[in-house]
Amino acid sequence: MDRTSTLTQATPEAKLQSRFLRACYGLPVDATPIWLMRQAGRYMEEYRALRAQHPILELIKTPELAAEVTLQPMRAFDLDAAIIFADILPPLQGMGLNLEFMKGEGPVIHNPLRTRADVEALRVPEPEESLWFTLEAIKLVRRELASRNIPLIGFSGAPFTLASYAIEGGSSKNYLHAKGMMMSDPATWHLLMEKLSAVIGQYLLAQARAGAQALQFFDSWVGALSPADYREYILPHSKHALDIARQGGVPIIHFGTNTGGMLDLLQEAGGDVIGIDWHQDLASTWQTLKPGTAVQGNLDPVTLFAPWPEIERRTREILDSVAGKPGHIFNLGHGILQGTPVDNVRRLVDFVHTYTSRTPQPA
Ligand SMILES: Cc1c2[nH]c(c1CCC(=O)O)Cc1[nH]c(c(CCC(=O)O)c1C)Cc1[nH]c(c(CCC(=O)O)c1C)Cc1[nH]c(c(C)c1CCC(=O)O)C2
């Protein structure tokens, strides 16, 4: 039996009415679904207005505010999925790291992990204790979206991407400290990855249990590694987290950037949908994936700053390249950028729907 039919049988038909969930399972759709990574954020005036009153961690940790921010892009655009407003870094706080979002600098961790003792001291708390606010926000958003039949995506950072922040203490170009620990003290590295994968797996599972209808696993920076290093130092841990998350019974999107040389390994770790960035051609990359895998992507986010005819041309090129093949979720290749013209976002969302509903689907 092929994988799609197994999933279809395991999932009550009622849950599969939305375009987005149908596409996750590789089922035919009436039009290509679209959502945008970081669709709630500073490019929206509504978001900036709330952010002017609350620091980002306060928005994330107040369920009513997180729910409100999640819904802002859903009111403004005809998107096919919502993603819960949170960040990948709060799970590190519960483990004992001191996280702050600094103006102009991005995230900073004031006590980065550098030694075996640092890693040993990390806690592995239950998500209900350390991340209760996001689980509550998921319940609130589900209530709001129920009547519109729009699914809600939960998410987590993946072990490598979270380890990179925890060890570097913030964003990084070359990951000298993170790769340094991996190469020079593999036992400590693996201990850290075991703790992270347990926290991440339980968090994803808790989000599904709270009502998230799909989960995205953000391994944003894992493309910094060689395939051999991915296999040895990352794959077992990402797989462990995803195996726990899978018990939630919802589709999982596995996303990374610059992962063209190791998508087979990301797939081995897990995921029903593979996120593809713009460094690769979507259609030919899709052909290299296991049969039955859905794909998400892959417009370069900078495209949205171009004049509309150019946005349309590039969007059409992606859609034409995979036209008629069930299992494509349109998205950007990475998060939407600050300063993106809102009107272009609206036109993009509407164009993907109208253009693909005109494209004849094979029977
Ligand atoms: C690496 C990463 C982070 N966070 C995230 C990632 C992985 C995704 C990716 O690869 O883009 C994921 C994330 N962060 C945020 C979401 C919300 C949900 C959504 O709408 O997609 C999601 C899915 C909110 C946010 N998280 C952050 C913002 C902007 C901060 C603000 O409002 O001041 C938002 C809307 C802050 C953040 N959070 C992070 C950084 C590096 C920064 C600072 C950079 C910046 O300032 O743009 C870490």
UniProtKB/TrEMBL annotation:
Q: Which CDD domains match?
A: URO-D
Q: What is its main location?
A: cytoplasm
Recorded hits in Pfam families, A to Z, give: URO-D
Gene3D superfamilies in the record: 3.20.20.210
Entry keyword set: Cytoplasm, Decarboxylase, Lyase, Porphyrin biosynthesis
| GO terms, molecular function | uroporphyrinogen decarboxylase activity
List the InterPro entries hit by this protein, alphabetically: UROD/MetE-like_sf (IPR038071), Uroporphyrinogen_deCO2ase_HemE (IPR006361), Uroporphyrinogen_deCOase (IPR000257)
Query: SUPFAM superfamilies recorded for this chain?
Result: UROD/MetE-like
**Which EC class does it fall in?**
lyase
E.C. numbers: 4.1.1.37
**Site feature location: Transition state stabilizer:** D87
Q: What does this protein do?
A: Catalyzes the decarboxylation of four acetate groups of uroporphyrinogen-III to yield coproporphyrinogen-III.
Q: Which family does it belong to?
A: Belongs to the uroporphyrinogen decarboxylase family.
Q: What is this protein called?
A: Uroporphyrinogen decarboxylase
GN (gene name) = hemE_3
